[in-house]
Amino acid sequence: MAKRGMLIVLSGPSGVGKGTVRKALFDEPDVDFEYSTSMTTREPRDGEVNGVDYYFVSKEQFEENIRNGEMLEYAKYVDNYYGTPLKYVNETLDSGKDVFLEIEVNGAMQVRANCPDAVFVFLTPPDLMELKNRLIGRGTDEMDVINKRIEKAVSEIRMMRNYDYAVLNDKVENAVERIKDIIKSERLRVSRVMPDYELMLGDK
Amino acid sequence: MAKRGMLIVLSGPSGVGKGTVRKALFDEPDVDFEYSTSMTTREPRDGEVNGVDYYFVSKEQFEENIRNGEMLEYAKYVDNYYGTPLKYVNETLDSGKDVFLEIEVNGAMQVRANCPDAVFVFLTPPDLMELKNRLIGRGTDEMDVINKRIEKAVSEIRMMRNYDYAVLNDKVENAVERIKDIIKSERLRVSRVMPDYELMLGDK
């Protein structure tokens, strides 16, 4: 049996640039992840291809998948479902290939519950780091606007607690390099390589 | 107060090449770790400098250090003590600098008990036969000594379970790159960067 692949989950606040970073990462010549295509009940937009951009299914089909435990994670936004079919992820991991998921924070927490040995990366906006200085430096915002922004930042940081790594998205190429470092390093985790070594010790 | 530095512990079976890898790592221009010099009661060999290769102390002094809780880890080999003075490590970490320890497996487990947030890297030989060849190649040991070391290596590899990462020492430059990947990736750990984010918003 092949060694099970690694599951990487990239998530982060809305608007942080998850899709852009994921695409840039997949363009790297030395990155070889299987990308898990999401399933949705929303209508395809112009140019979107079924099975590439999304699997487009009916609401009835999606709800049946949920009932049958066939979704690794899912969420409902504006009356439409979005989620990750479990079967493709499991089959790919079982074949020894690594899988990459780029999903929203609620979905990531569902994956964390189902796959504790996945690697969870939280993409943080640069303005989260610079937020306070910018707000003070600018000196133009009303206090309630400042407070709302700080509040949002605080709740985003609280979400970060449940992840393994925080990757600052100051520049797309920097974020990609950081994720590549994480991937290389995670491949060396004792919990992942121990089966290989046990095999070696077994027939010494 | 500066953010506390990161403690990296490199260990592995005798003869795996810990010292060579550590020296090559420290020669890298972009690696900036403080190296913690070990303390020993053995006699200095030709060319060895006190405070550089080791702190050379008397057996009485070393045992007093143990009694006073001043050793982060220590062990006795062939009637001599070897260990890491606690004070230097703590002061360096408190000043925000990162510390690198290259120590034997028993010592590493003592550090694990004292510093659970340290990063533990286990250097592994390409395979056990390779380890045997290296020991024979060194030409300084009798065959029964070599066999005992092999047996010890098997049990040491079992100890790998207690480490975070396994780094294969197939080539020194590969092992160095792997350790550099681990260091870069560990700097992105949520548990390490969370204090920065909390500090940033804490005094809003």
Number of beta-strand segments of chain A: 9
Distance N terminus to C terminus of chain A?
Answer: 20 Å
Please identify the structural class of chain A as seen in this structure: alpha/beta
Oligomer: homodimer
Description:
The structure is a homodimer of 204-residue chains. By secondary structure, chain A is an alpha/beta fold. Chain A has one domain: 3-Layer(aba) Sandwich (Rossmann fold), CATH 3.40.50.300. Helices cover 48% and strands 19% of the residues of chain A. Chain A has a 5-stranded parallel sheet, sandwiched between helices. Chain A has a 4-stranded mixed sheet with strand order 4-3-6-5. In chain A, strand 5 and strand 6 form a beta hairpin. The radius of gyration of chain A is 19 Å and the shape is globular. The two termini of chain A are 20 Å apart. Chains A and B meet through helix 5, helix 6, strand 9, helix 7 and helix 8 of A and helix 6, strand 9, helix 7 and helix 8 of B.
